[in-house]
């Protein structure tokens, strides 16, 4: 029997923690945003003790449905003077950076890596989940290894998502929270 | 005769130990001048090595049924935090109530930066008035706890 852990539902909040923002919902659809820090899910006691297949339903922050570029302005010492983020080809138009003629500074473009989530148990990486840069819900399956024989021992899955970008940086809204993924459900298959 | 000699030797050893102890602990204490016994190269060590200090601290206070806590990391490296690092010791008991997602909620960041601090919240469903209990934080072999104080 599949167990469905809904990230935004009140009854699952005691199983979740770390770099997660408060639950949000739209009608009966619940979710939580995560940042780029580690967040975790403590599996319920009903979880089978052997290897478990898990399905994660999540949607990355991807307001442009395409790659995101980063423009970094650094001084002689490598210190970042300014940073602007935008969709490919729009940075130059949107940026308001001004390089003072007397200042020795350098500008560098960087393509921000596509969204991803690293899954760990204990210190071991059990999966690296790659995502397309589009805002729709994307389903990824992975498997966690066998748990301890002690049924009372807690099995905790940790996740770390990247990249996290504030919507204010993208100019898409006034939300200042660095967001990486919108998390909907974790299903123990 | 032999037994008397042994008794005297034992008494002398005891006296030397006493002098040595006083010399180590309080050089200008009850015995006044510094003991010569403390200068002996064969002086027995009576002061156990002190354990390394716990590199983090915990402060907790109750706000209704919620425990608001702060962890201060005095160490030089980041400290990983997991919900299972927390437990509660009810006041006046030796019982330890461990983290269990069915009855306990721990809302805390996943790490404390070196020389930094984080705040979090905990709720133990069985203990709706947590003032006076102790919150335990044990992320490694050290561990610490804090008396949960009430808000006035």
Describe the protein.
The complex is a heterodimer of chains A (189) and B (152). Chain A has 189 residues and is mainly beta. Chain A folds into two domains: 3-64 and 114-188, Jelly Rolls, CATH 2.60.120.260; 68-111, no CATH class. Chain A contains two helices and 15 strands. Chain A has helices at 91-94, 167-170; strands spanning 3-6, 16-20, 24-26, 29-42, 52-60, 68-75, 80-87, 105-111, 116-121, 124-130, 138-144, 156-162, 165-166, 178-179, 181-188. In chain A, a hairpin with a 2-residue loop joins strand 3 and strand 4. Chain A is elongated. The mean pLDDT of chain A is 87. Chain B has 152 residues and is α+β, with helices and mostly antiparallel strands. Chain B has two domains: 2-39; 56-150, Immunoglobulin-like (Sandwich). The longest helix of chain B is centred in the first third of the chain and has 24 residues, at 2-25. Chain B is globular, with a radius of gyration of 24 Å. Mean pLDDT of chain B is 78; it is low at 1-5 and 7-38. Chain A binds chain B through residues 13-15, 17-19, 37-40, 42, 44-45, 154, 156, 158, and chain B through 82-84, 99-111, 123.
């Amino acid at each position: 029997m599949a167990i469905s852990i809904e990230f935004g539902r009140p009854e699952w909040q005691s199983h979740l923690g770390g770099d997660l923002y408060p639950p949000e919902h739209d009608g009966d659809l619940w979710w939580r945003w995560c940042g780029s820090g580690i967040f975790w899910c403590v599996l319920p006691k009903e979880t089978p003790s052997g290897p478990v297949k898990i399905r994660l339903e999540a949607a990355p922050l991807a307001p442009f449905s395409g790659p995101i570029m980063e423009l970094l302005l650094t001084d002689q010492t490598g210190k970042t003077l300014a940073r602007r983020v935008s969709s490919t080809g729009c940075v130059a138009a949107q940026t308001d950076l001004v390089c003072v003629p007397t200042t020795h500074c350098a500008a560098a473009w960087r393509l921000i890596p596509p969204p991803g989530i690293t899954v760990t148990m204990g210190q071991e990486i059990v999966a690296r989940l790659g995502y397309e840069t589009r805002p729709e819900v994307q389903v990824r399956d992975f498997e966690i290894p066998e748990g301890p024989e002690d049924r009372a021992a807690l099995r905790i899955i940790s996740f770390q998502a990247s990249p996290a970008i504030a919507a204010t940086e993208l100019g898409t809204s006034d939300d200042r929270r660095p967001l990486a993924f919108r998390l909907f459900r974790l299903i123990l298959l | 005769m032999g037994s008397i000699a042994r008794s005297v030797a034992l008494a002398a050893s005891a006296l030397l130990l006493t002098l040595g102890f006083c010399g180590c602990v309080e050089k200008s204490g009850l015995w006044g001048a510094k003991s010569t016994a403390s200068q002996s190269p064969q002086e027995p060590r009576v002061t156990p090595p002190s354990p390394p200090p716990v590199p983090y601290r915990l402060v907790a206070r109750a706000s209704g049924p919620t425990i608001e806590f702060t962890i201060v990391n005095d160490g030089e490296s980041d400290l990983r935090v997991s919900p299972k690092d927390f437990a509660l010791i009810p006041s006046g008991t030796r019982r330890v109530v461990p983290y269990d997602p069915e009855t306990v909620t721990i809302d805390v960041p996943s790490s404390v930066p070196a020389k930094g601090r984080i705040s979090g919240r905990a709720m133990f469903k069985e203990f709706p008035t947590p003032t006076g209990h102790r919150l335990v934080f044990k992320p490694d072999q050290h561990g610490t706890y804090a008396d949960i104080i009430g808000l006035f």
